[in-house]
Amino acid sequence: MELGAHPIHGGPYVLDEHFKFDISFHERGKADLQNISCTILSATYIAHVKYQNQIQSIAVDITDGKPLNASALEQVRLFEDVLTAIQIPNGFSYSDSPVHNFSMPELFQLYHDTQLLTMSQTLTRSLAGAISGYGTGNYFTMNTIIEDTNWAESDYNRTSALYTDLSISLTAFVVEELMRNITISILNYNTQDIVTAPAHSTTYETAYVFSKRLRLIAAYASALGVAFVFVLAGLIALYQNGTPASSGGFLQIMCTTTHGDGVMNQLAKQNSLGPSSSVTRDLSRLKVRFGVVTNSDGRHAAFGTVDETEVLLKHS
Predict the structure, then answer these.
(1) Which keywords belong to this entry (predicted)?
(2) Among candidates 41, 1, 38, which has minimal Cα distance to 23?
(3) Do 13 and 160 fall into the same domain?
């Protein structure tokens, strides 16, 4: 295709009482103009809008209807008599006028058709127009924005530092999808006739569920059981020894392993609540050994003074 030819032109027209829209464009690699002819239909859209996790998704069921009848819309001074008519219970009272007088059903259908036509023109008027002389001093564009879309691809000549050609990539499917997207978008503008519909909102809360609860119970029960055994053993030792085994030096250790009637144990009890500097002189100079102690409970090994204990022999 030579420069100066029309890369794209198009526009709406009426044929056989139907609204048509033709697009002729230059496609890359093809010498002849490519043509797409669209017929505007009166279709029914049922949109299923779903919100999940703050994300909107729309599923649309489209029922194709009949082609939009353009015969009434082509009339001259279409709504002139309506503007001057007086509304009555059964319709309108028209004044004498050379234009057509519509009944109430005819008028409502006409309003509906003009709204459909306006929706289609949202697309067609943005694409209709012409581009010619692209890349030359005679470049001309009129009433189209397709040059600024992703469907337009220009060729750049690095030698001349000029754009030399413009090609358009369009298909009938793309144009049809554009019309569907525009129709769905226009539905959001209807804020007057909103129909309240029930909506189900589900709020999910984080929860942790143990698949095998017995393992959790067994682990904690075992820990509590072992701890209870040690606590019980400590209480028994405290009862038998008469004083707690705290970290306070060798004298405290001896205090927990002596019999209650021994001299060392009696001296140690006198100093158990005081600091190490308050140990009496008798206790600090007391000679002790670990040997056999004989008392009312019998013979057993324990710390005691030299006079109170016997030498502990092997296997005794």
Answers:
(1) Membrane, Transmembrane, Transmembrane helix
(2) 38
(3) yes
